[in-house]
Design goal:
CATH superfamily of the largest domain: NAD(P)-binding Rossmann-like Domain
Strand content: 5-15%
Subunit structure: Monomer.
Largest sheet: 6 strands, parallel
Oligomer: single chain
Radius of gyration: 22 Å
Number of strands: 12
Helix content: 40-55%
Strand order of the largest sheet: 5-2-1-6-7-8
Order of helices and strands: EHEHEEEHEHEHHEEEEEHHHHHHHHHHH
Domain Mannitol dehydrogenase C-terminal: 211-361
CATH architecture of the largest domain: 3-Layer(aba) Sandwich
CATH topology of the largest domain: Rossmann fold
Structural class: alpha/beta
Keywords: NAD, Oxidoreductase
Domain Mannitol dehydrogenase N-terminal: 8-198
Catalytic activity: D-mannitol 1-phosphate + NAD(+) = beta-D-fructose 6-phosphate + NADH + H(+)
Length: 397
């Protein structure tokens, strides 16, 4: 299929792919080719060539996404045909950081095809909720290429770093393609890591910046941090959704406290932010959590606690920044204590089970020391232990 429009190849036709990145690209007048392993989704895209996204807020409304199609990412011959289309100008992903190595082979096939056809530079943007997603993808793709192909990739393929922000909760519609999303979104790309110039890749709905680290950490230490703390405190107080949790005064005040602590650190570290604007950003985040149309389960938001408790991530990251800048962090430490108590009964979350097994085998203190790298007797360690004991009592009430 040929088109006069610019073509975007997007890996990941799940809710986030269809409801966020794919939708933004389509609305920016791209013909979007979704690549995925889910045959039912791909077949539906090729039958309908469009789908509805439901913008969920106080006045829910529907937008139609059109001029899309699908291809199985495991079918390398089909991927090769897509790669030969003359108007491809961007490749994006929204598959989850853990899945990135699995799409390295089809992306490598696109690179090989472009090299054989003597095609020019293009950018491949990993739009994942993970700080090092671009590195994961780039290294995985490189392993699929020989030395000559690797040189072509270095010269012609950009792997820009980006930050993405949109809440896309589980949604059941009339069609398998329909998806529900919040109206708010941000997609910010590092202009310095684009292979072509900023002007060459101007896309409506995608912003660029020359200080991406600040925006990555703002999102991670505000939206992701607040989401996680809300989920873990919600779990402990037997709330089923983020909405129910954030409506609870104790949880709202604790999350607000944590975000103002991380915010103080962000404003102090990065001159691009100021206190007034960041306070408004925090208020916006809290309003998003309280969106009455979003029924996001605390167990979904809180899942994989070990990943969320990694150094530099949404919980320990802002704490470390506060420690470096000698700023208060009591609310953030409470969030860590709550995360250490996360143990959904359904047993579906392998990381939650692993975390509780570690605590049972090694003891809580040693697990915290292992996660944080702190020394025994650290004041923040003692604060987490005290909050853990206090919250453990809350969870049994």
């Amino acid at each position: 299929m040929t088109t006069n429009k610019p073509v975007a190849v997007h890996f990941g036709a799940g809710n986030i792919g269809r409801g966020f990145i794919g939708a933004v690209l389509s609305q920016a007048d791209f013909h979007v080719v979704f690549a995925d392993v889910q045959e039912d989704i791909i077949n539906a895209l090729n039958k309908e060539h469009g789908y509805d996204i439901h913008l969920m807020d106080n006045e829910s409304r529907t937008e139609r996404i059109e001029d899309v199609r699908g291809v199985l990412s495991t079918n390398l011959e089909e991927i090769k045909k897509v790669a030969k289309e003359p108007n491809i100008s961007i490749i994006t992903t929204a598959v989850g950081a853990n899945v990135l190595p699995k799409i390295a082979k089809p992306i490598a096939q696109i690179i090989k095809t472009r090299m054989a056809d003597n095609r020019g530079p293009i950018n491949i943007i990993a739009c994942e909720n993970e700080q090092h997603a671009t590195t994961i993808l780039q290294e995985a793709v490189e392993k699929e290429l020989n030395e000559e192909e690797q040189k072509y990739m270095r010269d012609n393929i950009g792997f820009p770093v980006c930050t993405v922000d949109r809440i896309v909760p589980p949604f059941e519609g009339k069609s398998v393609l329909e998806v529900g999303v919040e109206p708010f979104y941000e997609w910010t790309v590092d202009v310095n890591s684009l292979k072509r110039t900023d002007e060459d890749v101007k896309i409506k709905g995608m912003d660029t910046t020359d200080n991406l680290e600040a925006y990555v950490q703002r999102k991670l230490f505000t939206l992701n941090c607040g989401h996680a703390v809300t989920a873990y405190l919600g779990f402990l107080t037997h709330k089923s959704t983020i909405l129910d949790a954030i409506k609870t005064p104790f949880i709202h005040s604790t999350v607000s406290k944590a975000l103002n602590e991380s915010g103080a650190a962000l404003v102090k570290k990065y001159s691009v932010f100021n206190e007034s604007d960041h306070s408004k950003y925090i208020e916006q985040i809290l309003r998003r959590f309280a969106n009455p149309q979003l029924h996001d389960e605390v167990t979904r938001v809180g899942r994989e606690p070990l990943r969320k408790l990694k150094q530099g991530d949404r919980l320990l990251g802002p704490i470390e920044m506060c420690r470096e800048l000698d700023l208060p962090r009591d609310g953030l430490l409470t969030g860590v204590a709550a995360a250490l108590l996360f143990s959904p009964e359904d047993g579906d979350d392998e990381e939650a089970k692993e975390l509780q097994e570690k605590i049972s085998q090694k003891g809580l203190k040693d697990v915290i020391l292992e996660l944080t790298g702190w020394k025994d007797g650290d004041e923040d360690l003692d604060a987490i232990l005290k909050q853990h004991e206090k919250l453990k009592g809350t969870s049994t009430n």
